[in-house]
Amino acid sequence: MPDAPAVAEAALEVICPDGSRQRVRVNQSPFFIGRGEAGNHLPIPDKRISRQCAAIVSEGGRYYLEDRGARCGVCINREKISRRMLADADVVSFGLEDSYTLVFHFSEAGAASIQSLLTRMESIAGTDVSSGGLGKLNLLLEATRLLHSQLPLDAVLEAMLDRAIAVTDADRGLLLEADSAGGLRQRLARRSGSASLPAEGFSPSQTAVGLALKQQSGVITEDLHRAADVLQGAQSVIAQRLRAVVAIPLYAMPRANTAESIVRVQRGQFLGVLYLDSRRPAAFSKLDRQILDAIAIESASILDNARLVVSERERQGIERELTIARNIQQALLPRGFRDLPHLTIMGMNAPCLDVGGDYFDVVPIDGQRTAFLIADVSGKGLGAALLTTMLQGALSGMSIGADPVRVFRHINSFLCERAEVGRYATLFFGILGRDGELEYLNAGHPSPLLLRRGEVTELFTAGSFPLGLVPEAEYSTARATLEPGDTLVLFSDGVTEAADPNQQEFGISRLQGMLAGQHDVPLEQLQQTIVESVERFAGEASQADDITLLLVRYRSAAQGATPAA
Prior knowledge:
By secondary structure, the chain is α+β, with helices and mostly antiparallel strands. The chain folds into 3 domains: 1-110, Tumour Suppressor Smad4, CATH 2.60.200; 113-332, GAF domain (Beta-Lactamase), CATH 3.30.450; 333-554, 4-Layer Sandwich (Phosphatase 2c, domain 1). The strands form 6 sheets. Strands 2-1-11-10-7-8 form a 6-stranded antiparallel sheet, with helices on one face. The longest helix is centred in the middle third of the chain and has 47 residues, at 286-332. It is elongated and about 100 Å long.
């Protein structure tokens, strides 16, 4: 008789902030998820979640999760997505701390169905079923039902362990969980009769556990008197007069991650050990072993989901801290550039990560001069952001008349003496007077471009090493004169080194060509044109570096303050 056609079954395990859980079938396509019941198949009672948050769409027997306007984004296994295929045991979250988490369950031919599991076991071990096996199968049925209940995690694990003890007629059972250091910790212990047992007073057979881990498969010994010498002679076995031992290692199910239609399968992570023992010899039937395997798989699934949920919430906490850091960093950048009698300024910063290593500032020195600078710390992320904050503090002394050469020498010495910091910074610093005189210092930064009467040139290439790179580096200032209408375009290498999908860089020449003839364009429009040009060039390629711009336009000293040009 031919096999029945495969039937795909999908469900969401909803894990509440208090640890309770429930299971919801995905029986519509699209299956809408969001705040409130109106228009949603899965309403989530969290006011922070968008009304139209996400949807699960079934296409060609596969399921895809789509972001439908989530306020804080939608994540699969801690990675923010716009649309991605779902795999079994994927964890879905919404970028919020202490909120609801969803675990996607998907199986072919109803493999997750309890009735299907019972039918399959019954066909494998029919003789056992007819001689009391149905009672043991009922224990598995109860355990699986509890898996999908709204009980807290530990209560579900206790129920699974109780059923395993009952099926094997063991005296006691222990669930060992892998810790972050690679060892095992006792998660919970139970004894026959569904009673609790202090985990610290439980000494499992380390020999049996070690053997199970070494061979990466279960050790099921019905009578230790007839077992291998290594088990018979184990000190814990002799001291506790053990006769039967079960040790089953638990592994997460392998996951398939999709990226550009390429599927990569990762080996299941080790999660722990299910351990049972007895002072009486046992006789495990084929059905007993099948049920033990099923309980071990379900226990591993629970532990795996719990691990992913904890990991997701830790990620959310880190993301919250990074958001605070990003907000602080952005708040430290100058805002609301006001026009001065002799110049107009416009600037922007777009970090490629949550926080970045680029920095710009504008500091009025006195009524006649204004200092401005752009800096780029090596690397990206939090380490670079910390150094930019330190630089800003050091350079704030410019506003009280400190000599820039002395300041930069001091910063260079400070960083070089602390080589363990492992960072350096390029920087261009300028002081522009009302008469158009520009005094500048370049510490290894790309030369600003000068836009004068429609032509674009590099005039500020003279300079020294980046700060924090060479202890003996000497710094000095140079001078130039700006004419009314001149515009300086300062940029970080995230602009010129932006790459397209073929790894071709935007480059200085392309930037110069784009700026040619733009000398009369308002600075806000000029800035937008540069950013859009870089984005068009990069196309679908991801941003690999921070992008920072600072535009400075000099006006005649005799010219009064006018609206931004």
